[in-house]
TrEMBL record:
Gene3D superfamilies the record matches: 1.20.58.60
Protein name as catalogued: Spectrin alpha, non-erythrocytic 1
Source organism of the structure: Xiphophorus couchianus
Stretches assigned to coiled coil: 18-52, 113-143
Keyword field contains Phosphoprotein: no
Length: 403
């Protein structure tokens, strides 16, 4: 059984197997050392037996020589087995070193192979794939540790190739470190790529939204009546609410872009350009919205003025019929007609404030340089002229009644 152990040709397929064989051999060596004292004892016993049993001295001598020969042979075979296992250990270390450094080279090429994505889905796929690479790197951690431990064991044993082993251990550590550094660099790039694609996607959504709002503001209809202007103002108020609701997203995009720029993102110049363009477009949109509201409010005030002037003109025309009525020429019930005329003059006097209010509102429109100033002026003059005619006609009628 012992001879089978020391004559075995099995040297292990990998470091783990070699270590197992070495452990078994170390157990064998411990057992062998325990038998050495017994062998020496048997040798001493043989010498004494030769003296006490001279008639069997020759046979005892042969058994003693056979024992010593077998013992020396098994020790020689054990030494040779130990040397072969050591050589195999160094060979397996070198093979594993070669396999690991080759794998590191392939993994680096794989990590560097991916181009940066052009959309959010692509960026997500890059990060997922990159995390898979990290999983594979982590899975090789045991191999790196086992190879390092094997190299350290060779150094501790004073192996004849210790310098070569030491160099390989240094190279392996450097290769592993550079692989981890490369993975981290690419992780940062892929995360920046994800941030960039999110920024591009969100800015595109806001740009599309602003295009629709700009199209809404192209409407130059200011209404032709109070009802139509009020309807347009209601639509504009809804539009302004939509602007306010979107403002939070634009502010968040502004802050996100600023953060990317401050963190030295690889596309910080493009991010800054897009952010500035977005904010400028937003500001222009707000200015146009404010201008549109101002125009609608001007239109609202104009339609109020038109309504009031139309009502006054209609009222003046009605009163003009009374002022130009010649029934006063009939002398019957003259006192009653005089009283009726006095009541009419009082009514006109009471409505002077309506004339004054219309003139005031018209003047306010003119002072604000209203876009319909010419028409406002014409209406003011028209109402004023008709009012003057009404007063003159009323005064003339009163004087004639007095006559």
């Amino acid at each position: 059984v012992q001879e089978a152990i020391v004559t075995s040709e099995e040297l292990g397929q990998d470091l783990e197997h070699v270590e197992l064989l070495q452990k078994k051999f170390e157990e064998f060596q411990t057992d062998l050392a325990a038998h050495e004292e017994r062998v020496n004892t048997l040798g001493g016993d043989a010498e004494r037996l030769q003296q006490t049993h001279p008639q069997n001295a020759s046979q005892i001598h042969l058994k003693k020589d056979e024992l010593i020969t077998n013992w020396e042979q098994i020790q020689t075979l054990a030494a040779e087995r130990h040397a072969r296992l050591n050589d195999s250990y160094q060979y397996r270390f070198t093979a594993d070193f070669r396999d690991l450094t080759s794998w590191v080279t392939e993994m680096k090429a794989l990590i560097n192979a991916d181009e940066l994505a052009n959309d959010v889905a692509g960026a997500e796929a890059l990060l997922d794939r990159h995390q898979e690479h990290k999983g594979e790197i982590d899975a090789h951690e045991d191999s790196f540790r086992a190879t390092d431990e094997a190299g350290q064991a060779l150094l501790s044993a004073g192996h004849y190739a210790s310098e070569e082993v030491k160099e390989k251990l240094g190279i392996l550590a450097q290769e592993k470190e550079s692989l981890l550094e490369l993975w981290e660099v690419r992780r940062q790039q892929y995360e920046q790529c994800m941030d960039l694609q999110l920024f591009y996607r969100d800015t595109e959504q806001v740009d599309n939204w602003m295009s629709k709002q700009e199209a809404f503001l192209l409407n130059e209809d200011l209404g032709d009546s109070l009802d139509s202007v009020e309807a347009l103002l209601k639509k504009h108020e809804d539009f302004e609410k939509s602007l306010s609701a979107q403002e939070e997203k634009i502010t968040a995009l502004d802050e996100f872009a600023t953060k990317l720029i401050q963190n030295s993102h690889y596309a910080k110049e493009d991010v800054a350009t897009r952010r500035d363009a977005l904010l400028n477009r937003r500001n222009a949109l707000h200015e146009r919205a404010q201008a549109r509201r101002a125009a609608l409010e001007d239109s609202f005030h104009l339609q109020q003025f038109f309504r009031d002037s139309d009502e006054l003109k209609s009222w003046i025309n009605e009163k003009m019929k009374t002022a130009t009525d010649e029934s006063y020429k009939d002398p019957s019930n003259l006192q009653g007609k005089v009283q009726k005329h006095q009541a009419f003059e009082a009514e006109l006097s009471a409505n002077q404030s309506r004339i004054d209010a219309l003139q005031k509102s018209g003047q306010e429109l003119l002072d604000r340089k209203h876009y319909a100033s010419a028409e406002v002026t014409a209406r003011m003059e028209d109402v004023s002229a008709q009012w003057k005619k009404l007063l003159e006609a009323t005064e003339l009628k009163g004087s004639r009644k007095g006559e």
